[in-house]
Amino acid sequence: MLNPHQTNSHHLHEATFQQLRSLLVEGVITPGSKLNERELAQSLKVSRTPIREAIKRLAADGLVELIANRGAIAIQLTKEDVLNTFNVIAQLEGYSGELAAKNISDSALSELEALQYEMMASYARRDLSSYYKLNLRIHQLINQAANNPILSQLFTQVNARIESFRFRSNQDGVKWERAVQEHQEMILALKMHDSERMRKVMIQHVMHKRDVVIQLLESENLSQMSTV
Questions:
Q1: For the chain, what percentages of helix, strand and coil (3-state, to nearest 5) are there?
Q2: 121 Cβ neighbours under 8 A, 6+ residues apart
Q3: Which among 185, 178, 213, 210 is positioned nearest to 199, based on CA atoms?
Q4: Any idea what DSSP says for residue 67?
Q5: Closest of 205, 78, 76, 90 to residue 159, by C-alpha
Q6: What is the mean pLDDT of each run of 10 residues along the chain (228 residues)?
């Protein structure tokens, strides 16, 4: 059993990890930049120990690269990396959705509907940070409802690589609206236990996201070239 000191330490380490993760996903720490332990410790008001532990976990999740003589670098993916990752995610999400439609419990469905309601409220406020966290939780719950731990583990590992792109791609109003509509379709397919419909909407959702992200990457590359 953990004593109060160990419990507090665990909470501190977990909170530091989640804060650092958000900084990477939301692009505050930009791709390719070095994670400076001393500066991060000062800004998050913690010692360097939880920072070091968080960086190790982020490296294991694929959000950070540990490079000899350079330290920890925020992952920087090429267009090809992004395409390959999204293509894998689409199949994982499709299979996950198919299994979830067969296996989901009434309580899990109720929780998903509550999260969907909250997410719609965030969308109405254009609160991207809150929307994204709820969106990710919905995708995680669908994965859990599939009742296949290996699939859930694979999804988490692969999705971590492109989370920052999924976050940023919601900033386009029209495409964000389409993503929200697709989420409504997911809930309907799950309620009807329609595994084929659920598989299709999940794959379509990820492929639309992939196209938006590639468009975003290409426009960023163009703007960088024009400023050179």
A1: 80, 5, 15
A2: none
A3: 185
A4: E
A5: 90
A6: 62 92 86 92 93 92 87 89 94 97 96 96 91 91 94 88 79 80 96 98 94 85 57
pTM: 0.77
- Cβ proximity of 190 and 104 under 8 Å: yes
Same domain, 113 and 198: yes
CB 123 within 8 A of CB 115: no
User: How far apart are the C-alpha atoms of 228 and 225, rounded to whole Å?
Assistant: 5
Residue range(s) defining the domain that contains residue 31: 4-74
| Gap between the terminal Cα atoms of the chain | 58
Burial of 24 (0-12, 13-18, 19+ CB in 10 A): buried
Number of domains in the chain: 2
